[in-house]
């Protein structure tokens, strides 16, 4: 990638130790990987269940609509929820800290 | 200049959304292996008792008019985009001015190939519940994209995945390896799309296959070479709008049949005699019905298509991770101004995709009731015509002209879909070759803007020509496993390389190159010895079984029908031709039992990354991790990349 030239050297290690950055990083990793792992597990469990306990999926819940179809629908809804929740979390939490950090950076507070 | 393009973009956005009628949209996925599975499973079954075979008969005049309107609009966009494409950033990243919402539609569109629009509905109409798995996979795949790759890619990438990987690693080896993987992936996926598209066009409007592929190819060249990312994005957005409108109209017509009551739809499935006999005779192969067994209900339950749980899981995981490693998807993040917009585009794409697939699940069941699986299978073994047959029937139920127009519209949408998807793929390969190899490695990053754009255009042209040639040559070749392979390579090579270099300090140049190569080779190797390949001995076995059953019949009944005699001759020939054959790798039977290598190749990819990074660390690269990490997380310095 093109390197920025002629800029003041930034001490990135120092930025990386900035408490606000550490907090941002910790919360982001926790949120992102947490939800990602949870989603992956849900998905794989669903795949395995569909094959191994298909009797459960045959259970009629509402009229002729069975548990299997409701599962399919709820997985779509789950995806929407994850997307929506992440968007709102990021707007509330991570974007705020990020903006603070970037402001500080612009003021030169974290440059050598 | 900037203002004008924003206004134009807005006008176009309005136009698109009015075309779309409604705010939701579509998407799509890897499909061809789906079709392959279908053919594999249904191909051997005896001909089902059919209703009068239906045919997709689009009114040629209306269809061609629709095609022309679409082509005219998109060429207008290309003209408009070409005037705005003067720098490499215009060419690869649409100047970085695409908004989150626009990009979301484009991204949904990127994943929405003709095969997922037509193919997934078809699968559901033939196999019931199991077909829906593909729809869910696509939705979940975007969770990975959203949470793991979207924002970091925007924050530190410029035009290609190579940019991200070479941020702190040695640019030359990393870019070269990544470009190799990206081109391989894109070409594989491109060939699948071209061949599928060519066959679809042949089926829909009756033009010869090679003409269809060439026609698609020529338009693709015009879009990509002249219009670059700006045109590709807008074609994708318009197509996504059109596709979504088509699906909504069809869905409404279908739902009206069942009084907009899902319970009615489901009870119609359970009580449909055609579905019952399809499940009993064709899918479960039970010549005598089990008393009291509700075959119609069985259609709504799992395991009519996928019988191997590990294959299912393997495919699912490759899909879940692989999408995040597809260069043409990652490339979309470079077209938006910042991480917020990148995030928003994935959220928008997920909403569109989810809405689309919820409708598709019901469309599939509706088609099974209204058209019947027998009729769908009779027209196309892959079930691809399910939506179109239903559109024809439902539209004609209102008035013949409505049926014709609706069908013509859906055909035009399918065509638009193929074009838009292949254009994105060509652009991704061109980025890898022209930006990573030519400009960054050969020219040491010192090329002038004019030269960069020229290199990109020439590369796009060459890639497109190669794709057309392979496409035309592959008419009779089964290319379905290439999609499987593309997703396996993306998930076991590209994804570990990207994720580890973004989040793990110790990831080094050696490890990046190693994981890309190992992921690619392991996936390739496993597919080559998997059941995806043809094993002549197994084919011969099948023929032998057929011969002995027919001969037994001959002895028992003394006579064979004419058709059976032909079958017997054919089976004997097949047996002779195959009895001593070997697979492409010289095998009698598959070494690896699964069609989808992901469950093995993905862990190998991630392990390889760990091992090589620990064995070959690089101090200097570790030191630069802080910079990349801060920038990746916060977007500091992103303005240097997007040049605002």
Question: What is the oligomeric state here?
Answer: heterodimer
Instruction: Quickly give the structural class of chain A.
Output: mainly alpha
Gap between N and C termini of chain B = 14 Å
Ranges of chain A where pLDDT stays below 50 over 5 or more residues in a row are: 1-7
Mean pLDDT of chain B: 85
SSE order of chain B, one letter for each helix or strand: HHHHHHHHHHHHHHHHHHHHHHHHHHHH
User: Which two protein chains have the largest interface (Cβ within 8 Å of the partner's Cβ), and how many residues from each?
Assistant: A-B, 55 and 66 residues
Shape of chain B: globular
Q: State the total count of DSSP E strands of chain B.
A: 0
Q: Say how many strands of chain A there are.
A: 2
Radius of gyration of chain B: 25 Å
What is the string of helix and strand elements of chain A? Answer: HHHEEH
CATH class division of the domain at 11-82 and 98-475 in chain B: Mainly Alpha
Itemize the secondary structure elements and their pairings.
The complex is a heterodimer of chains A (112) and B (644).
Chain A: H1 12-17, H2 19-52, H3 54-57, E1 60-62, E2 65-66, H4 67-106
Antiparallel strand pairs in A: 1-2
Chain B: H1 2-20, H2 32-42, H3 60-83, H4 88-93, H5 100-110, H6 114-127, H7 132-156, H8 161-165, H9 171-205, H10 209-257, H11 262-271, H12 273-283, H13 295-298, H14 309-322, H15 327-330, H16 339-370, H17 373-379, H18 386-398, H19 400-442, H20 449-473, H21 480-503, H22 509-528, H23 536-557, H24 562-578, H25 598-615, H26 619-623, H27 625-634, H28 638-642
Helix pairs in contact in B: 1-10, 2-6, 2-21, 3-10, 3-19, 5-10, 5-16, 6-16, 7-14, 7-16, 7-27, 9-10, 9-19, 9-20, 9-21, 9-22, 10-16, 10-19, 10-20, 11-16, 14-21, 14-25, 16-18, 18-19, 19-20, 21-22, 21-25, 22-25, 23-24
Task: Give a quick set of tags describing it.
heterodimer; A: 112 residues; 4 helices; 2 strands; B: Sodium/glucose cotransporter; 28 helices; globular; disordered N terminus
């Amino acid at each position: 990638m093109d390197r920025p030239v002629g800029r003041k050297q930034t001490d990135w290690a120092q930025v990386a130790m900035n408490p606000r950055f550490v907090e941002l990083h910790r919360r982001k990793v926790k949120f992102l990987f947490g939800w990602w792992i949870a989603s992956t597990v849900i998905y794989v469990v669903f795949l395995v269940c569909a094959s191994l306990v298909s009797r459960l999926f045959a259970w009629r819940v509402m009229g002729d609509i069975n548990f299997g179809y409701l599962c399919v629908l709820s997985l779509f809804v789950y995806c929407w929820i994850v997307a929506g929740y992440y968007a709102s979390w990021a707007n509330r939490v991570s974007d705020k800290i990020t903006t603070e950090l970037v402001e500080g950076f612009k003021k030169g507070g974290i440059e050598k | 200049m900037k203002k004008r393009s924003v206004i134009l973009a807005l006008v176009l956005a309005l136009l698109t959304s009015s075309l779309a009628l409604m705010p939701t949209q579509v998407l799509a996925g890897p499909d061809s292996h789906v079709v392959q599975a279908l053919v594999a499973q249904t191909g051997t079954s005896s001909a089902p008792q059919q209703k009068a075979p239906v045919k997709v008969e689009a009114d040629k005049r209306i269809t061609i008019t629709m095609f022309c309107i679409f082509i005219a609009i998109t060429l207008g966009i290309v003209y408009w985009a070409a005037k705005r494409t003067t720098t490499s950033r215009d060419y690869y990243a649409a100047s970085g001015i695409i908004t989150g919402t626009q990009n979301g539609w484009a991204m949904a569109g990127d994943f929405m190939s003709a095969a997922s629009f037509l193919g997934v509905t078809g699968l559901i109409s033939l196999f019931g519940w199991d077909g829906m798995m593909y729809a869910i996979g696509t939705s979940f795949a975007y969770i990975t994209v959203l949470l793991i790759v979207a924002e970091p890619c925007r924050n530190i990438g410029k035009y290609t995945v190579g940019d991200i990987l070479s941020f702190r690693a040695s640019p030359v080896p990393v870019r070269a390896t990544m470009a190799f993987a990206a081109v391989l992936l894109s070409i594989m996926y491109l060939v699948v799309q071209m061949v599928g598209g060519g066959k679809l066009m042949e089926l829909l409007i009756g033009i010869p296959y090679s003409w269809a592929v060439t026609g698609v190819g020529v338009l693709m060249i015009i879009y990509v070479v002249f219009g670059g990312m700006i045109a590709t994005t807008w074609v994708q957005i318009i197509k996504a709008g059109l596709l979504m409108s088509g699906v909504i109209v069809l869905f409404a017509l279908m739902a009206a049949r069942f009084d907009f009551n899902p319970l009615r739809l489901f009870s119609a499935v359970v009580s449909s005699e055609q579905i019952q006999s399809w499940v009993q005779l064709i899918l479960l192969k039970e010549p005598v019905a089990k008393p009291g067994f509700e075959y119609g209900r069985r259609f709504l339950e799992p395991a009519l298509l996928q019988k191997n749980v590990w294959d299912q899981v393997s495919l699912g995981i490759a899909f879940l991770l692989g999408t995040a490693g597809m260069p043409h998807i990652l490339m979309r993040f470079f077209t938006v101004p910042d991480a917020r917009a990148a995030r928003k585009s994935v959220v928008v794409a997920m909403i569109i995709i989810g809405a689309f697939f919820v409708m598709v699940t019901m469309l599939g069941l509706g088609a099974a009731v209204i058209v019947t699986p027998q009729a769908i299978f009779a027209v196309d073994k892959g079930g691809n015509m399910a939506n179109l047959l239903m559109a024809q029937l439902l539209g004609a139920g209102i008035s013949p002209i409505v049926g014709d127009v609706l069908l013509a519209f859906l055909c035009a949408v399918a065509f638009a879909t193929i074009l838009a998807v292949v254009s994105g793929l060509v652009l991704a390969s061109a980025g890898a070759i022209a930006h990573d190899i030519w400009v960054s490695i050969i020219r040491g990053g010192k090329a002038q803007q004019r030269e960069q754009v020229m290199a990109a255009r020439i590369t796009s042209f060459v890639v497109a020509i190669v794709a057309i040639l392979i496409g035309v040559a592959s008419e009779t070749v089964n290319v379905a496993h290439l999609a499987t392979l593309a997703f396996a390579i993306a998930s076991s090579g590209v994804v570990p390389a990207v994720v580890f270099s973004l989040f793990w300090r110790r990831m080094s140049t050696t490890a990046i190159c190693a994981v890309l190569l190992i992921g690619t080779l392991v996936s390739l190797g496993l597919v080559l010895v998997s059941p995806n390949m043809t094993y002549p001995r197994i084919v011969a076995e099948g023929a032998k079984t057929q011969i002995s059953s027919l001969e037994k019949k001959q002895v028992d009944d003394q006579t064979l029908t004419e058709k059976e005699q032909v079958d017997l001759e054919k089976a004997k020939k097949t047996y002779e031709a195959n009895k001593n054959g070997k697979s492409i790798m010289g095998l009698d039977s598959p070494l690896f039992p699964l069609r989808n290598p992901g469950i093995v190749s993905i862990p190998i990819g991630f392990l390889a990354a760990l091992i090589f990074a620990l064995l070959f660390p690089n101090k200097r690269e570790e030191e630069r991790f802080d910079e990349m990490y801060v920038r990746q997380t916060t977007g500091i310095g992103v303005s240097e990349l997007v040049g605002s």
